[in-house]
Amino acid sequence: MAFNVLIVDDSSSMRAVIKKIVTLSGFKVDQFFEAQNGRLALELLSRTWIDIVLSDLNMPEMGGLEMLAAMKRDNLLKDIPVIIITTEGSDERKQMVCTMGARGFIKKPFLPEKVREMLYDVLGVKDDGNYGKDQEGDSGSDF
Amino acid sequence: MMEITEKIKKATLEATFDVFEKMFFIFLEPSEDASDDYDMETCIRFRGGCLSGSIRMLFTKSLAEGMTRNLLNLDAAPSEQQTADCVKEAVNMVCGNFLSILEGKKVFDLSIPEFSGKPLKYIENPGFHKVDLISDEGSLCLVIGISDP
Fold first, then answer.
1. Which one of A68, A69, A81, B34 is most buried, counting C-beta atoms within 10 A?
2. Alpha-carbon gap: B3 to the closest alpha carbon of chain A (Å)
């Protein structure tokens, strides 16, 4: 099984970096989707199957917290796991984000390993170092 | 006052080194005779509790382009848009990291980083803390304006 990943960040550089890290981690991705803010992410989520959202908090127009709250109010979107990737690393902020329903929290600057671990953890995929590598006819056996 | 200045300077250095080493693979060090001729600047404002202020980061072009190349793993020179985007992300990360070190338990609101071309020169002002840094790629100046903590 491969996943559809949505990256929400107003910085195109950061979206590119996260995309690269996820790809290099060996995590099996079907398609990457990108949005520059929460509002555009919600639009995309309403018409596209997304398995996991990686989102910044501080974005123009609609930030990550507002997007998360809107997702939780929507029966079709409420169960999609959201991992927040942000510079705002206070304990209180982390707690607030988790209380609102985010499944993970990664503080920038981050090491690629942290993103990888969090993805595997949130999606319940076993990270044995082989997941994502081409295994003919056996690509889903690590679940 | 001296104690506060030292605390801010220490938090600034720790936050900046962490961001630049982890995200941009650039190793900075403090400098007494860094450039005062910078090519671009980015600024972010923050507020939370009784603390508010701003961080300005001034970059030489060579440093900003080096950061962007490293972050995006580019062989060619980055575009102006890529460079602007990269330095805005840098100030965002440095600010978040700086506030975590200074007041780790408080929640802060950060503004969206702003970018501008040729910056105004820094004029000594007791309300601001200035830190000069250099690397093999170029120079960086941080100007931190902060309300009395």
1. A68
2. 23
- Name the CATH superfamily, with its identifier, for domain B2-147: CheC-like (3.40.1550.10)
**Half-sphere exposure at residue B65, Cβ-oriented, CA atoms within 13 angstroms:** 11
- Tens digit of each residue's pLDDT, chain B (149 residues): 556 688 888 999 999 999 999 999 999 999 987 677 899 999 999 998 778 999 999 999 999 999 999 999 999 999 999 999 999 999 999 999 999 998 888 888 899 999 998 877 766 777 788 899 999 999 999 999 987 54
B97 contacts chain A (CB < 8 A): yes
Give the integer Cα–Cα distance in Å for B129 and B11.
Answer: 12
Would you say the ipTM is above 0.85? Answer: no
**All residues at 6 or more sequence positions from A32 whose CB lies less than 8 Å from its CB, including other chains:** A4, A5, A6, A7, A19, A22
Q: Are the CB atoms for B42 and B115 separated by under 8 Å?
A: yes
Q: Where are the domains of chain B?
A: 2-147
